[in-house]
Design brief:
This protein is α+β, with helices and mostly antiparallel strands. It folds into two domains: about 70 residues, no CATH class; about 70 residues, no CATH class. About 45% of the residues lie in helices and about 15% in strands. It is built from five helices and four strands. The chain has a four-stranded antiparallel beta sheet with strand order 2-3-1-4, with helices on one face. The chain starts with a strand and ends with a strand.
Length: about 180
């Protein structure tokens, strides 16, 4: 009996071949697929359906939370906790609250961007099974890879390997755990 694997990885020499392979993999019905390249390829993202991104919503919510917390912190201090009537100005003087409200909006949005990016990307990830493939070292230089995970419902070790060979890759490798 063969040991379980993480998936199968195909190596391509140019981005056009990777994009064509991504279209065919998606048409075949595979859904747990990752593509690796030294630079972003928009056509591959479209082929694999990777355009749903939750990060802008997290940044918006972080900014709203920061703005509300900045405003209501100042309101609480100026009106409820320590009211000072200086020169007859109203206790709730909202124009003076704008600067801190803006600064906390930016701060919370930036922090939610960093933390959301780490969370959504699964970082920090010092180890990933694709690093077990020796040729994967070229993914940051001049090679393009597509990996079909073994957890995909359509994954069959032999059928998937045969399918990947039909895409004319340079090499097809098993990705060990």
């Amino acid at each position: 009996m063969r040991t379980p694997i993480y998936g199968l990885m195909a190596e391509f020499e140019n981005p056009t071949a990777l994009a064509a392979a991504a279209h065919k993999v998606r048409e075949k019905g595979y859904r747990k697929v990752e593509a690796y390249s030294p630079f972003a390829i928009e056509e591959v993202n479209e082929a694999l359906g990777l355009h749903s991104n939750k990060l802008p919503l997290l940044v918006l919510l972080g900014g709203i939370l920061g703005g509300l917390s900045g405003y209501f912190l100042q309101y609480y201090v100026a009106v409820i906790d320590f009211p000072l009537n200086i020169g007859g100005r109203p206790l709730h003087s909202w124009p003076s609250f704008i600067i801190i409200t803006f600064e906390l909006t930016i701060l919370f949005a930036a922090l939610s961007t960093v933390l959301g990016l780490f969370g959504l990307c699964g970082l920090p990830m010092p180890y990933h099974p694709v690093f077990n493939v020796s040729r994967f070292a070229f993914a940051s230089r001049d090679r393009f890879f597509i990996c079909i995970e073994a957890t995909d419902p359509l994954f069959d070790r032999h059928e998937t390997a045969d399918f990947l060979h039909t895409l004319a890759p340079r090499e097809v490798s098993e990705v060990a755990h």
